[in-house]
Every structure is written in C-alpha cells, then in structure tokens.
Amino acid sequence: MSLAEKYPEEVQAIFAKYPIKRSAVMPLLYLAQREETYITKESMQDIAHLLDLTVTEVASIVGFYSLYHDEKAGKYRMQVCTDLPCALRGADAFLNNLCGNLGVKVGETTPDGLVTVEAVMCLAACDKAPMFQLQHGDEVHYHENMTVDRTLELIEALKKADVEVK
Amino acid sequence: MTHLLFRHRDIPEINKLQVYQKNGGFANFKKAVTSLQPKQIVDEVKASGLRGRGGAGFPTGVKWSFLPDTIWPHYVVCNADESEPGTFKDREIMESNPFQFLEGVAIACYAVGANEGYVYLRGEFFEVAKFLDQCIAEMEKAGYLGDRLFGTEYSLRLKTHLGAGAYICGEETALLESIEGKRGQPRLRPPFPAVVGLYGKPTVINNVETLTNLPYIIEHGAAGYRQFGTEKSPGVKIFSLSGNVNKPGNYELPLGATFRELIFGLGGGLPEGRKLRAIMPAGASSSIIRVDNASFERVMDTPMDYENVQNVGSLLGSASVIVIDDSHPMDWVINKTIHFFKHESCGKCTPCRDGNYWMQHLTERIHEGHATEKDVVLLKSVAGQMLGKCLCALGDFSTMAVTTAIERFPEDFEKKVKA
Amino acid sequence: MAKLINLKINGTPVTVPEGTLVADAAKKAGIDIPVFCYHPKMEPVGMCRQCLVEIGRPMIDRATGQPILDDSGQPKLQFMPKLETACTNPVSEGMVVLTSTEKATTGQKEIIELLLTSHPLDCPICDKGGECPLQNLAMTYGADQSRFTFEEKHHAEKHVALGDLIFLDRERCIQCARCIRFQDSIAGEPVLAFYQRGRNTDIVTCSDPGFDSVFSGNTTDICPVGALTTADFRFGARPWELKQAASVCAQCPVGCNVTFNVRREAKSGGGYAIKRVMPRQNEQVNEIWMCDKGRFAGYPYTESTSRLTLAPAELDSALSRAAAKLAEAKSDAVILAGGRLANEDLYNLKQLAAALGAPAYLYTQMGGGETTTAYGLTAGSNLGDLGKGDTVIVAASDLYNEAPIWHLRLKAAAQRGATLIVANARATKLDEFSSFVVRYAYGDETETVKGLLGKEKVGEAIKNANHLVIFYGADGLGLGGTSALAAACAELLNGKTGQPNNGLIGVWSTPNQQGALELGFRPAADLASKLKGKTVYILAADPAGDDPRLAEALKTAKTVIAQDILATETTRLAEIVLPAAAYTEREGTYTSAERRVQRFYPAVPVKPGTRVDFALVAEIAKKCGVELEGRSALLVMNKLAAGESAFSGLNYASLAEAVEQWPIIGRGDLYYGGTSYENKLGLGVILAQGAQPFNVERSTMKAIRPQENELLAVPVTKLYDLGTTLAPASRLAAQVERFAGVVLNPVTAAKLGLENGGKATVSVNNVEVATQILLDESVSTGVVLIPRSFAIPLSEPAAVKISVAEKA
Ligand SMILES: Cc1cc2nc3c(=O)[nH]c(=O)nc-3n(C[C@H](O)[C@H](O)[C@H](O)COP(=O)(O)O)c2cc1C
Ligand code: SF4
Ligand code: FES
C-alpha cells in the first residue's frame, strides 16, 4: 500500500506545510520508516512518485541523514551518545558494560531482533550522561541519566510489550 | 537573579499557555504588531546590541536589515538544530519555556515582514517538535497565529521541520537545503540567505536563544536589555556546562560572568581530587584553553563574553563550556572531537572530506600509541592544510581543538609517541 | 552587450564582460587555474577547492564610493586573508588576481595532495590515463611521496556497472559532482546522486534500468578522473595510442560533430580500428555533447560481419551489369535514394537520373521537404541563441527519441526563457520543460497547428515572438500527414523566414535527408506502384525490410540493383548488389536538418571490396556513357556548388573553417571542459535562404476511423530500434529490447486481455507480426503505437487488429 493510501491525512498535512513539494521528502521518509523501521526501495519509489523526483534523488536523502536507515536492524535502535561531553562522564564505560550484559558488540542486534545497540554523536543531553535515545520507527525518545541496570530493565519492558503486541 | 530566558526556573508551568499569558505572554508580540513599525523593531534590536547566540555572534538587528524590500516573500527560519557537542540550551528553552521562544519567532517574523516562519529542529528532537506543534496549535486557537492578527492586516504561520541526524544542518545554508528537501550541504555564499535564502527568497536565520530574547527587548527596550552584560556584549547568555563538573547543566548569566562563577560557583567545581586541566568554551569546535598553575587565575577571572574569551586563546561561540580534568589526555580529547567531525563532514568539499578522514586516522593512531613524532607533525600540518580552505566553517571548526591541543599540551603527545 | 570589466591576472591586464568568473577570465587570457568541480557549462559550486587564488579588490571609500588611492596614486588593494575560489568569484573592476604566488600555489598543492590521498593512483591501468586532469595536475603540483600511510587509505568498490553503458570506479571518484550536475541541470534526468556523506560519499544510481538516460556517455567526458568510463572503451586502448578523425554523427538529422578515435591493432590484422566516438565541439550544433546512440552505435557497423564486399573483378562486373540494365531501361528505371547518402553521392545520382531520364525518389516516410527547403533556417542561426522573447514549437515529434541533442538544446532554450510549445498526441519528455503542452487526437495534427494562433496565450507567444523556430516530425504520421503538417507550420511562420533563427525544421530520421531535399529529391506518394515492373536502383535504403508490400513490389520489378553498406532484405532480393564504403571510411558532407552543411573525414581506410557511393554512381554513369566526377569528394563538391544554387559558394575549405569557441576545451588542461575534442576542422556552413517561399498547398488529411474490433495504429520513432546501422551495436541490445514492442494504454490492453510484456500478434496491412506488448498510460485509449524499424510495417496511420499470441 502506498503512503498516500496508508496515511492519507498525514500525507496531506505534510504537503500543506510547504510551498514546494520537494520539501515534503523528509517528513515522508519518516512516515515510510514508521512501520518498517527502515526505508524500503518500494517506499523510496513511492515517495519519488509522490514528489516528482527520481528514486535516486530520494535515496540520496536517505543516505545523507543518519536517522534514516536503508537496512533492517533491531526493532529498537538504542543509540548511546559517546561523544566528548558524555564520554567525560563515563559514556564509553556505560556502553561497554551494556554491550557486555547484552552479549552484543556495538552495531549488533540482540538475538531476539529487538534492540540494536549503536554509538552516536552528541544528542544535546550532555549534562545527563550516560544517556541514549531509542529510535523506533519514526519516533525518537530520550533516556537520560541512565545506569546499565535501568537500561536492562527498560529492555525487559520493551520485550514484554513486544510479546503482548504479537 | 531572575531569568530572562529560563523563566520556567522562576515560574512553574510557564510552558502552559495560560500560565505564560498570565505572566505577560504575547503582550509584546501584540504590542509589536499593533503599535510598532517593523523598522522600529529592527532598530530597537540593533540598539539592544543583541548578537546571535548560534555561535557566530553576528549582530541580530544588523542581519535583519540586510533583507531587500524589493523581493518577497521573506522567511524567518529558526535554527534549532543544536548539534554542537556540549550544547543543550535550546532544547531546554523549547521544552520548558516554549511560548516565549515562539513569541520571539513571531516578533522576528513581524520585524522582517515574514508571514511564514519555520523552526528547524534536529531529528533527535522528535518529542520537542511534537510539543512545539502542540504549542503552535494552541497559539493558532488563541489568535496569536493565523490571518489578520489582532485586527491588523498582518498574518503569520509557524511550522516545525525535523532534520534527521546531521550536524552540518546547523550551518544555515545547509539547513535551508534540508528544508527544501535536499541533502544538507552548505551553499556557496554569497549570495547570503538574507538575499537568496529559503526557496530562493530573502531569509533571516536565527538561533533559538537569540529569538527568545526578543519579547524582553520589546518590553524593556534596548536600554532595558543593556542593563545586563557588558558594553560590547550586552544581555544574558545561557551557558551549557558539561564535562568534569559536579553540577553540569544550563546556567543563564549576564555576558561577562567569569569562568570561575560558572565552573566553581554554579557548577559546583570539579569532582573531589580532580584538577582543572582544560576548557572548551565553544563545544567541540573550541580552541582548547589550557589551565595550569600559571594560567589558572587569569583564565578563571576571564569574563565570558565575545571579546574576552579571545584573550585566553579561544572563542565564546555557543557558550558550551566543556570542562576537562587532569585525568584526560588531550590525544584522547581530540580523537573524540575528530571522530565527531569526520562523522559529520558532509563531504561536499575536498579539504573537509579528506582532511577529516586523515585527521581521524592520525588521532586514532596517536591515541592508541602506534604513532611517531612525525605523525603528530603531520596531523598538525593537515589541520593547517584545511584551515581557511573549506566551503563552510565546519572544516575550520574541526581543526581548532587539534591545533591547539598539539600546541598547548605538547607533553601529552610527547608521552604518546615515546610510549 | 554586457558591461566590460578590467582586471589584472598575474600582472596581465584582462578585459571581460561583467559577470565572468575569475577562472573563465584567466582561461580567456591563456592562464590556467586548476579546476575540478568547475565546468564552464554548469553553475559553479566551489566544492573541490582546487582553484584557490589570491584576490585583491580596490578599497572603496564608503563616503564617496570612489577607490582609495595609495601614495603613488594607485588604488589601494584589499586582499582577503583566506585564499578564494576562482571558479565562484565574478570579476570586478580593478580586481587583482594572483594565481601562482607562493600562497596560492601552496593552497593548490594542499588540495591536490588531499585528493590524491584517497585516489588509487592506478594510472597505468586507468582508461583516463594520458588524458586525465588529475594525472596532469598531480604531475604539476603533486609531491612525489605520500605523507600518509598507504594501509589507511580509503578503499571503495571498483567496476560498478551503473548501467549497460557506463562503469564507475568509486575509488577514483573525487566527488566533484560534475556527473550529477550534468544529469540534473543539462540532461534534465537526475538519475545520479551522492549517497552517504563525508568520506563515504559515493555516486549511485537507483534508476531502473540503471543510469537511465540517453546522455549518459557525456558524464565520462567531463569526469575529470577515470571514475566513469564507457563500456565500449574500458580497457580498450590507451588514449595516447589513438589517432583522431573529425566526423559528423550519422544517426539522426542533428549532425553532432564527433571525433573517431582509431588505432592500428593486432585484432584487426594490423589495420585501423575505431575504438570510440567522442563529441567534438560545435557550439552551434551539439556544443560539447552527444547522445548515447551516436556514441555506442556510431561505429560498430563499420566492422560488422554483414558488410557487403566484392572482389575487384566481381565488383567491376556488377557495375557493368548494373550500367547495362539502367542504360537499357532509361526512363523506365527508378532510382530510390536513402537519406544516409552524402550530398556528393546524391549529386552524382541526380546527374545520372537526369541522364537516364529516370525519376529519382527519396526513400522516406516523412514528407514536407519542399516546405523545409523554402522555410528552413538560414545563415547565422544557432539554437543556442534562443531565449527570452523567442518561441519554439515542436509539433508531432518526440525529440528525446528522435534527435536527443535538440531535446537538450530546446530544454536549455526554455530555461533561458524561450517559450516552448510542445504539441503532440501523447506525452513526451520535452513536456516537462515546455511552457505550453498542446494535446490532440491522432489525425488532428494539422488542424491543431492551424489552430494554435487562435489559442490565447499560445497564439500571443507565436505572434509576438522575436524569433520563431518550428520543429515538426512524423510522430503518428505518414508521408501525407507530415506534408500537410509542414505546410500548416510554414503558415505560422508567416513571413518570419529569411532572418537568422526563424524557420521550419523537419525532424528527419536520417542524417542527410535535408541535403537530398535541397538537391531536389522528393518521396514518392505510392512507392509500391512506382516500382512494379521497373529497373530499380536502390541506394542506402531497405524498403523490402521495412514493408512486405514493398518487398512484393520489388519482386515484380524487372531488375533490382541495391547499393549499401550492410546486407539487408533488399540486397538479399537484389539481382545486382554494389558494396558501398561506410561513411567512417570516407569523406563527404551532410546537410543537417538545420540546413548546416558539415564535412566528415575518413576515420579508417575504405574496406577492401567496397567503394564510396559517389564513385560507384560515377562508375555506372561512365559505363552508361555519362562523365561524372568520381575521383574525390572535394571535386564532386566543387561541381555541386557550381551546379546547385542552394549550395553556391560552398567549398571544402570554407566548410573546414573553425574559429575559437567558448568555452575553450580540449587543450593541455583537459580539466577545463573535459575530454571532448576541440573543433579544428570545421564548424560547417548554413545554406543560404532557399527558394522564395512558395504557396504552400492547404492539404487536409482523411482521419482514419477504426472499426469496433480495431485499434488506430500509428507509427512512432524510438531512439534505439532495429535500424541496420544500429543493430551491430551489441552494447545497445538491452536498450533495443526495451522498446521492441507495440505500446498500448493499460485500459486498452485490459480490454484485449493483454498484459505488460506479454506476447501478441499484430495484424497490420494484412501482415501478421508477432510482437511484445508494452503498456504506457500516456497513450490514448484505442490507439496502438507501432515503433518504426521494428519489423512491423506501418508507414502511416492505419486501423489494425491485435490479438493475444497463441500459447506455444
Ligand atoms: C557546522 C556548523 C554548525 C552550526 N550549528 C548550529 C546550531 O546547531 N545551532 C545554531 O543556532 N547555529 C549553528 N550554527 C551557526 C549558524 O550557521 C548560524 O550562524 C546561526 O544559526 C545564526 O543564528 P544567530 O545569528 O542567531 O546566532 C552552525 C554553524 C556551522 C558552521
Ligand atoms: S564520478 Fe567523476 S564526475 Fe562524478 S563526482 Fe566522481 S569524479 Fe566527479
Ligand atoms: S572549487 Fe573551483 S574548481 Fe572546484
């Protein structure tokens, strides 16, 4: 199903927001990522069609921005900030410890496919390190002043919620 | 003191429309639209001496006056990309004092004759954007946005636009490209956005904090605003304090407050047993200030404003003060900053794209102890090779910490290459 | 005329028009500033930072607006602390540019060092080696040793097929975006883009099929490194082994100037072989571009296995037999000439026909020639000059497929402000760039054109045009329809002809149809009936292959004499076959549809066993007792110019004249304009105004009304078809395949139970042909498009039946 069929109102609202069509590409890409958690070739084609762009032009946007993904990973992307200010406050150790607990390396996904752990650049939460953001579909939520224990609890909760949905 | 920008710290729940209204909210926007000519506002802001809080410190009123009144429409774009490592002030403003911020955007729009304003938020600010959308909807309902505001001919609409993870989109022309649905790569300048900006039209781009000052300036006039800060750097500034301090966080202070007041006063000093070794006052793009026995007092007494920070070999920038204690060697610090810049280089121009690539390899090697003295020389040379030759400021930014770390902390590098 | 600006570059005074960029000003003054991303045909982007120079500008007194003078009365200069990019800064009065000071040179060296650090430096195996700007500049500026560690070098994918025709070596790419920008701003097909960012930035295409553009080859010319290469030339030869031969592309009526690159090689028994075709600059024709058909189909047929040859004795005997047959038939002979013949061939042929008293017809499905010779373009015309205030009409033609470079040039004219009106029964690629799209039903072409003046805005644009150029074609039309359409177009020109950049252009399917027309050749209305029982001499045409009815007619002919380069259906059924030299092997001239006469030169020697067309004709004539010039093309042209008023005054010397063109390309600094060739061998000459405008006949067409169970079949032209010279270009097989089929609206197809890609049988003019079904929403319902030269005979609109092929 095309985005316009799936989310008619939202697509319309996005178009209404800008004086030129092309500006809609970023919000539409988020929409495309909502359910799939990554952007499929079909969605790119769909968006290209909606905006009178070539699919190459759309792909080029996907490739540029780090919050768009062209490959499937875990359902949640746990993106730990390890940039300088957070690192000064122990973010690297936090990330290592977390990975150790989950039995994955940075960039890998837990065996159940739920969480991909990633290291990212500054998230504007430097005073609340260790922290990470949880990217899920088109949503991003911050989790600040975290400990490994609380993070593992969070993952448990996500797991439970996931099972319930299924 | 009472806060000008962080009024939420004085008034609980000011992020609710009624509370904001009760505390004088939108009276200044109304006053502007109903009783002031746009030019009067531009002149008042010029007189207030307000300078851009996004980093470059360009006088805000002067910037506005560059818009030609022969080309329409005009746009106002608020830069809420806030991606400089160590900067987290705009987020707090938008989360906790959103209406004052939006009132500021509205005033700027009126001042330059824009009927549309965009707030460009970094993609990670998903929740903030959702909240702002809600605030904007409330403002529309309350008659602060829409057609024929306050019974005048003036109409205004505000919109948010989410980026998607790219520091370079904080650079104003890259930001415009991003709103236009393109890769966030900087444009050539000139033409400047004031003449050819968003959708090719004259555009003002200002930082969140810059704009949040406006309601106060309208209410109290230039003179009122100049009560704070110094002659050359008037007003208040939010300092994002991070790193090795006991109480990291945002602190609103008049410009010209000293490093001592911030780090040891409000910031509660360094953790027990640690010594202050370096300060990066403008995030990852800073020239690193060396603090040692010889320079400690002088640095601590340096007023944090646009002029004086230069005297200790750095710049105020966006005032993201990263404090580094004596447990962190500089080769590690620059390895971190270069990791960031290499990741964020957009790749458009050669020196930044390839320069950062090599700087990363070199800092990595130096930090891991596999390097020789020649590598340190080469690293510094690459930084010099990039400086002043890039398409936008990101390239220059990436060299600042590297060059100053090598120059000012030679012992850290000597230790590394000998080991 | 733009204001002139005076400045000094390295001490040399330079005067250039206002708005000129420093890099261009330097180039004009003979000073080379190194550039990579900058290309004079595209907007500057300033991204490679190679062109760093010092720029000083006179200091201006704010109060008086006058320059501040120093003690010696000279304007004081202000130099920026940073080096500036020469490619992005326009000149200004009194500017001082320093390109080779220590500071500037250091900056340039620093950039090239960085570029080289992530480049593989595989020049010895790189196709660009020897003509590579990066290599040249590295030799000039580069250090001989790297300061960086080789193991840490950026590595990327090599041999990435972007499509069938173009390969990308990601490691060699220097991210200048020339290719992306060419596709976006010049070709109007943004199918290339950057992916990822920073050092990970890569060129990609996601189009399906890959690199979906008929201009793709041009990116390999302007790529300043060996990142983009063509499938045919890759690993084919080293540039320095190649000789150049100037030529004119023979694939369509535009007449793009090209250069054949040849070398002797073992594969050809030590003989010469053509290795590639490159564009040759002619700013009035193709600028520095060419289309992929010209590039990939322009030469392989020269060495095709289906080349016709005869041993000398056999050839002589064939000529004698042909002469005897013709001499015997006299006025009962019929001559049929294709538009691929050169002016020289046609001139001799015309003399022969006159001597025999036999009719000589032009073999074509498109009429209106008498109108274009009278109303065509005249000297001084250049589509590159069209812009604001001018109007261009394109009627019943799909230029993207029929004459791609015109598509590109009209797009550019529209972007410069010209009003572009595209009238067609279906959507074409040019619609996107037009100001007005006029749609009509097939059959209404002429009426539609006649009615254009009555359409408010369109009419205004035509009436008020400073210059009016009209292109008409045969999209959906046959001989009668195009003649009527041409007449209607001529009426719109209404006295505007005779001035430069006003006139009618026929979008012919062959390179020299205009030349044939200027020499008086005309198509025959009912060709089949004209052939029956006659002695037919057919040159450079394959009527039997195009239409079984013509094949039948030829079978009833008394004698068929066929002269061609490659074996065709027609040569197969001919009694006498005369093998002709390929145009790549000989000299001659073509007259483009813009009426520009252009010389082409031999690239390789004449294939043994063949002879040049005009010589074959002269030989026959001689054997018939008629003396014609057969010794050289130059001598034929001298006669032609003396005998034909339209060509009067032309000679090979005037046709070989070339003046310096802008942008300057192809000199030592290849980086400037890419590897296209400088034109040193002739820009061509446009024919003087044709015969005085004559009264165009107001003919009308009878519309075809298909029956209940029929569709309206209309012929259209596809760029890649089964044409005889195209077929040997094996690289284009996939492109040809894409278009091999009849095109229907999905609704029409659904009614007939046909699916995209499905097999079907078309019954046209009582011939049943198996074909493929292609669906396209832009085709009207009830219509089926029949691409020409795909073995489905349809010379003009007709009612047809289509049915699903029986499952085998
Ligand atoms: C690489 C780069 C990143 C930047 N990031 C930001 C940012 O995140 N927020 C911001 O307000 N300004 C940022 N700037 C500065 C803006 O380009 C611009 O100067 C500023 O938004 C103008 O607003 P102001 O005059 O109110 O400071 C950045 C500049 C560069 C070169
Ligand atoms: S492939 Fe060639 S033209 Fe394209 S960006 Fe790379 S170097 Fe430039
Ligand atoms: S920046 Fe001038 S040529 Fe590339």
Report on the structure:
The complex is a heterotrimer of chains A (about 170), B (about 425) and C (about 800). Chain A has helices at about 5, 10-15, 25-35, 40-50, 55-65, 85-90, 90-100, 150-165, and strands spanning about 75-80, 115-120, 130-135, 140-145. With about 170 residues, chain A is α+β, with helices and mostly antiparallel strands. A four-stranded mixed β-sheet of chain A has the order 2-1-3-4, covered by helices on one side. Chain A has eight helices and four strands; from the N terminus they run αααααβααβββα. Chain B has three domains: about 5-225, Rossmann fold, CATH 3.40.50.11540; about 235-325, Ubiquitin-like (UB roll); about 330-415, Up-down Bundle (de novo design (two linked rop proteins)), CATH 1.20.1440. Chain B has 18 helices and nine strands. Chain B has helices spanning about 15-20, 25-35, 40-50, 60-65, 90-95, 100-110, 125-140, 170-180, 210, 215-225, 260-265, 295-300, 310, 330-345, 350-370, 375-385, 395-410, 410-419, and strands spanning about 75-80, 115-120, 155-160, 205, 235-245, 250-255, 275-285, 290, 320-325. Chain C has 24 helices and 33 strands. In chain C, the strands form eight sheets. In chain C, strands 1, 2, 3, 4, 5 and 6 form a six-stranded mixed β-sheet that branches. A six-stranded mixed beta barrel of chain C has the order 28-32-29-31-30-33. Chain C has a five-stranded parallel β-sheet with strand order 16-15-22-23-24. The termini of chain C are far apart. The interface between A and B is large, with 40 and 53 residues. Iron/sulfur cluster binds near residues 174, 178, 224 and 228 of chain C.
Q: Which helices and strands appear, and what pairs or packs with what?
A:
The complex is a heterotrimer of chains A (166), B (419) and C (808).
Chain A (H helix, E strand, L loop, with lengths): L2 H4 L1 H10 L7 H12 L4 H11 L3 H10 L11 E6 L2 H5 L2 H12 L12 E6 L11 E5 L2 E5 L4 H18 L1
Parallel strand pairs in A: 1-2
Antiparallel strand pairs in A: 1-3, 3-4
Helix pairs in contact in A: 3-4, 4-5
Chain B lengths: L16 H6 L4 H9 L2 H11 L11 H5 L9 E7 L8 H8 L1 H15 L1 E8 L4 H16 L15 E6 L9 H8 L23 E5 H5 L1 H13 L9 E8 L5 E6 L4 H8 L9 E9 L4 E2 L5 H5 L7 H4 L8 E6 L4 H15 L5 H19 L4 H14 L6 H16 L1 H9 L1
Parallel strand pairs in B: 1-2, 1-4, 2-3, 5-9
Antiparallel strand pairs in B: 5-6, 7-8, 7-9
Helix pairs in contact in B: 2-6, 2-10, 3-10, 14-15, 14-17, 15-16, 15-17, 16-17
Chain C lengths: L3 E6 L2 E6 L4 H7 L23 E7 L18 E3 L4 E2 L10 E3 L3 H16 L15 H9 L18 E2 L4 E3 L9 H9 L6 E3 L6 E3 L12 H6 L5 E3 L12 E6 L8 E8 L7 E8 L12 H6 L14 H18 L3 E6 L4 H14 L3 E4 L5 H7 L15 E5 L3 H4 L1 H12 L3 E6 L11 E4 L5 H7 L4 H8 L4 E5 L6 H15 L9 E4 L6 H6 L8 H5 L3 E5 L3 H4 L1 H8 L3 E6 L4 H5 L2 E4 L8 E4 L4 E5 L12 H11 L9 H11 L8 H4 L29 E2 L24 E6 L16 H7 L2 E3 L1 H7 L6 E6 L2 E9 L7 E5 L10 E7 L4
Helix pairs in contact in C: 2-3, 7-20, 8-20, 8-21, 9-14, 12-14
